[in-house]
Amino acid sequence: MKALRYSEYGPSSVLHVVDVDPPQPGPGQVRIAVRAVGINPFDWKVRSGLFGDTTPTRLPVIPHGDVSGVVDAVGPGADAQVGDEVFGLAAGGGAAEHAVMKLWVAKPAAMSFEEAAGLPGVVESAGRALALLGLEKGQTLVVNGAAGGVGIAATQLAVARGAAVIGTASERNHEFLRSIGAIPVTYGEGMADRIRAAAPQGVDVALDTAGRGAVAQLITLTPAPSDVVSLVDFDAPTLGARVTDGSEGRAWQTLEEAADLYRQGRFTMPVERVFPLSEAAAAHDLSQSGHVRGKVILVP
């Protein structure tokens, strides 16, 4: 089968399409014919060598864990049938014509495979962060970077749970944020004052998905610095805020919540652009640019 692979860390040019043997599902696993693959910042950070030689532990590697597709083989004890349309997390590399999955949920019939492949990582991250914040119905949440994948997911989950959401983004994304239930404000210098104007009732909790030094502004808005959680600023604890990297536990159950909300017409995930595997380098570069609404997707 065709698969995307890299044998050394470095720029996007290290990515190549190669021929490899198709994987086989083990106990409790399924294999899918991959229809789409989602790109997350974590993927290109690993590829670039940002985390050194520890993640992944061995090269060469087939990247990407977020996938969608059609089940074509079922391992012993797995609760699935051949022909099921699913999305979730690949057990090994997902950027290939076939992938083994260790965690999956049913894809809503009306959801495209491309949109579904964009959900797993960002939905889990959003659900985990909102759980850490202890978000409750009636509270006001600020989402910094609300037009990125995690921000879009967190905004819609919070609105569905009865919270008011203020989302920071560039002006080109303000109308989109309004469409998913957020009050948009522009990020950058003076952001805290703009948020105060948009939320005269005050802010209860804040989620930073974009970094850029926003935590220092966000903690001036919440009752305590610990009411701010960042997914990207690992210096946040020096200011009294918190950071989550998933080591404290995952929130994969949020995938079912997002799928149910989609079926109700209350959840969406924009796809910025779709690339074939042969153009994976350009896809990584676009994701890394930071100027993306929603997700960048690969298709085998």
UniProtKB/TrEMBL annotation:
One Pfam family hit: ADH_N
Gene3D superfamilies xref list: Medium-chain alcohol dehydrogenases, catalytic domain (3.90.180.10), NAD(P)-binding Rossmann-like Domain (3.40.50.720)
Entry keyword RNA-binding: no
Coiled-coil stretches: none
Stored SMART domains: PKS_ER (SM00829)
Matching CDD domains: MDR_like_2 (cd05289)
SUPFAM superfamilies the UniProt entry points to: GroES-like, NAD(P)-binding Rossmann-fold domains
Source organism, top-level taxon: Bacteria
Annotated InterPro entries: ADH-like_N, ER, GroES-like_sf, NAD(P)-bd_dom_sf, Zinc-ADH_QOR/CCCR
Keywords, ordered alphabetically: NADP
Domain Enoyl reductase (ER), residue spans: 10-298
The protein, known as: NADP-dependent oxidoreductase
